Amino acid sequence: MRDSSSPSPPAAGVSRRAVLGLAAAAPLTVAAPASASPGRPAIIGGTRLGGPGVQVQGPAAALPKKLTARSWLVADHDSGEVLASYYAHRRLAPASTLKMLFADTVLGKFDHRLTHKVADAEVTDVPAGSSLVGIKPGITYTVEQLWLGVFLRSGNDAVHVLSHMNGGIAKTVAEMQARAEDLQALDTHVVSPDGFDHKGQLSSAYDLTLFARHGLKNADFRGYCATRTADFPAGGKKTFQIQNTDRLLTGAWGLGAYKGLIGVKNGYTSNAGNTFTGAATRGGRTLLVTVMHPEPGGNGVYEETAALLDWGFGHGGTARSVGALVEPLSEGGAKATPGPKGAAPAGAAGSATARDRSSWGLAGGASGVVALLAGGAYALRGRRRRATAAGGRRRREATEEGRHRR
Q: For residues 347 and 52, is the Cβ–Cβ distance under 8 A?
């Protein structure tokens, strides 16, 4: 999926002198921090995370230069500091990375040794085209085996069985939404527990990183996402082997296993493309990286994740924080203030051009000055041009909405 919209022009009331003054004040560095306007609520995790383009303080030049993802984020697991990001709050289809929130919500409810005989009704509502682990009605599974099916094979059939055990799909979706709000993952809207393509099912790199960080505090979650292979029941005494589809963990499909990787979750749908949240530990430090919607094909989502992890381990120690992963409200976290209802954070609506998609389109200060001057001149051209721009934005929004339909 490619971005099709572009940044909105400045307000038409800006004078030529004001435009020139703003241009003179623009820094010739990485994209300037977004600052909250008087009376406007801050962005979750810090206002800078709502800013356009790359957000980093420190060794910016060392960041990978061939990133194609529409959104990404690098954070320190222990401190929660966000070391670098690119449109961290852009709302995108999450695919199976949403299963991290499913695990955050349901994992602690059932003892892993509990057994469950699957009924036909528990798998008949699995969407056609889903990834499956191979659950069959009439076979008895342990809860642990069901979770291995979720984490290793991203099995939507396993998700649906566990959801029915939890009281049903609707109840589980409501609980996942409540958990997201407790985690202060306010970019996330849950429609199904499995992450499959549904209109309006959205999350962000920031929120997915919150889910991973919270989940990794749970020993079972951490153990499941780090498991490479497992034997899965096939009926009677028969079993078959399942393998983890996380290529950075297993080193499959031409990739070497990433040194120190401990999970967490990958995903793919025709709407979302590839998404991935990975965590790795080196030298006693654990980093989290989320990459959403890179250019399609090959191992791109894993290669970009590995490149950002390399940057974090190599240069992240000298990078200054540009934001923070907030703590859950239920664990004493201070309640963050969301943006205005119905309004996405800055940079949230897909807006990367081909130049921007390299993650450096807005990073150069000189190009930012040029863009600002051009935007000011545009704004001064009058009402007719503004009306044309508004119509264009409406058409782009309609196109973007259509992309969420499968």
A: yes
pLDDT in tens, 60-91: 778 998 999 999 999 999 999 999 999 999 99
CA 303 to centroid of chain Cα atoms: 16
Number of C-beta neighbours around residue 334 at 10 A: 9
* Nearest alpha carbon to residue 193 among 105, 134, 290: 105
Average pLDDT over residues 161-179: 98
- pLDDT for 317: 80
Q: How confident is the model at residue 58 (pLDDT cuts 50, 70, 90)?
A: confident
The one catalytic residue in 71, 130, 131, 154 is: 154
Helix (H) or strand (E) holding 280: strand 273-282
- Annotated catalytic, 99? yes
154 is catalytic: yes
Look up the pTM and report it: 0.77
Say how far apart CA 44 and CA 326 lie, in whole Å: 8
From the list 130, 175, 171, the residue with the least C-alpha distance to 154 is 130
> 71, 85, 96, 192: which is the annotated catalytic residue?
96
Catalytic residue, candidates 71, 99, 163, 203: 99
